[in-house]
Amino acid sequence: MKSNIIQSQEIEQNVKFLGNKTLNLKKGMAWGFNVPKFIAIPTYACTDLYTNKISREETAQKIAKILQCKKYAIRSSALIEDTAQSSLAGQFLTKLNISDKKLAKNIYTVLKQANNFLQGNLEKFSMIIQEYIDADVSGVTFTRNPAGKREMIIEYGFCDGEKIVSGKISPQKISLYWNEEKIVLPKQFSVAHNKSSLKSNLIKNFKNIEHKNKFPQDIEWCIKKNKFYLLQTRPITTISNKQYTQIVTLEKQLPKNEKYIYEKTEISEIAPRPTQFTLDLLGHIYSQDGPVKNVYQKHKVNFINTHFLKIIGNELYVDKEREIQSLLSAYSYLKNKKFIPRFNNYFKIIPTIKNLFFLNQIKTENYKQLFQALKTKIETAPHEKDFKTALKKFITDYELIFEINLLSGLAIKKLNFLLKNEVVKLPAILNTNNFFVNLNKYKVTLPKNLVGNSLDISDKSNFLTNTKTETQLNNNISLWWENTSDIQKKLFKKKIKEAIIYNHLRELGRWLTVKNITAIRNTLITHPKANEFNDPDNIYFSNIDEIINKQINEDICRKRKNIYNQYDNYNFPDSITSTFIDKKTKLLGVSAGSAQGILQDHNYLESKKLGTEKYILYTETLSPDLTKYFNKISGIVSRNGGVLSHLAIIAREKNIPVIVGFSLSSSNFKLGDLVEINGDNNEVKVIQKII
């Protein structure tokens, strides 16, 4: 005869009649967690209890005799609840702090609500009668951010947990990464509890629960007299297996027990996923005798190669601590909680002050000479017939490219400061031609047979450019200029002219980069042929010394390529820090204009045979190779990027609006939504949600 009451030791024999909430608590007990004692009422008994075919009073008395608790909690454990696909959190009724005399009545109340919700199908419903813990502290923990991010989120209050999950109170909140050892809890904890022990055990328990379940968990818990109780745990349904694998993969590659701050910057945009060969090229650029050092030295600034480039997965990051100390050695990001660069080292104050002084002395007036040098280098026919010559020319020419990048950043920074309180913004200004400056004077004949759009040697996308010189002037700028005083016009005009010209020169610098990368690629072709490679593209995973010393091995290249390829489907965050900082990124238009389209990523645009619809491209980084999608899109939204991004420059030339600072995972947007973006007023809004 089937029992109407199933005790914890009988659960294994009755699995098919019990919901996941019950089964998860049983697993928690087996793993050694403190679970309040409970019994379960199986599905086949719930209908009879609801109709009183099985006496609720007699059942309640039997439960009270078995559990012998002062107070009880009655919780749902439906078969459709707490699954990997759906939690149905809060859809069924919970009754707390119930005396044994009111147990039968409240069992009926819970069953009645479930019967109504399930439209009479109580055969899908089981329930738990559990010891009620009059908690000192109650909380809910997501072992990972439900948006698919890596931080743990803890919400708690000095009350019972139902007030938190039902939204009756605003809980206190902690977000932390798994490597963090120090967390801040309020003073109330120290009054009744051993604070340090509680903190360490609390976090340890949450981590163990995820490890045991092998997936991120939504945990309800409480603490009574320094004792941790697991009330329930279930999988976080909004996180996919792929996202979890990505989180775990990322954490394995991060340093242990040390502070760090890594970011995708403009350097990342020119080669977001560099092959071994491209990474070597970047190493030459930033080496102690490379073009970056030489340009800074020209301006009396001392640059130290601190090796700040870092690969995570196969994505390029900048170690911000090392980067700032390459120029300002007395500064640090890691000496404050919010990773804001601050003065830190008095022993290095003199070289830092010298560099700051000379950085502020750099002038931006010599754009005519820089243009002439660029024009000559771009228009000179390539004659590099061997790898060493092509490499040497690339490194030599990159001095000019880096100097233009440096000066364009300064020119645009100055203009942006002047526009701070104006109605027009920088992207709209940069999108104008032949009104503030005649760009016809800065034309260059484009070389033939260029391949790619970035510094990456493996980028074989069709080279795209369209430097427009026709007049582009919208009504807002025209009206603003008419209402600007003559004194202000004089001040603005010089800075606007410089910014527009440098913006143009920066794009020409990309042309020269692609020209030289194309030349290097052409000289590399001979090596896989001479070494009888099965796949010529494997040569991109050799390093420069191997090529120079003629020590190329396809097996080694293939192994590097296989390691590289395993990260292709991962998109790690644009900023990775050792301590959680809740950054609220502002949307920023870096290319003016407005557009509507269906929000999709590059995977969709690559894999689908598209019709006449226009799309808004969502991307993590403004990489120049995304130009291959320009004929399919009407706009771009990106998590990362800036006004000086090469892709932003090309987009402005193509009149494609671009907004950065947009995170899909942190928004209520979904791929497939019809959206509208406006680069003039920094807006992204949904026109129609995907069904």
State the main characteristics.
alpha+beta, single chain, D-amino Acid Aminotransferase, Chain A, domain 1, 23 strands, 23 helices, 691 residues, five-stranded antiparallel sheet, Glucose Oxidase, domain 1
> In angstroms, what is the radius of gyration?
31 Å
The biggest sheet amounts to: 7 strands, mixed
Could you give the distance between the termini?
48 Å
Overall body shape: elongated
Give the overall pLDDT as a whole number: 87
Strand order of the largest sheet: 17-21-20-19-18-22-23
Strand content: 15-25%
Give a short summary of the structure.
This protein is an alpha+beta fold. α11 (291-298) crosses α15 (387-418).
Care to describe what's here?
Helix content is 38%, strand content 16%. It is of the alpha+beta class and 691 residues long. Among the domains are: 6-235, 2-Layer Sandwich (D-amino Acid Aminotransferase, Chain A, domain 1); 584-688, Phosphohistidine domain (Glucose Oxidase, domain 1, 3-Layer(bba) Sandwich), CATH 3.50.30. Strand 22 and strand 23 form a beta hairpin. Helix 14 (367-379) runs parallel beside helix 18 (486-524). The protein is elongated and about 95 Å long.
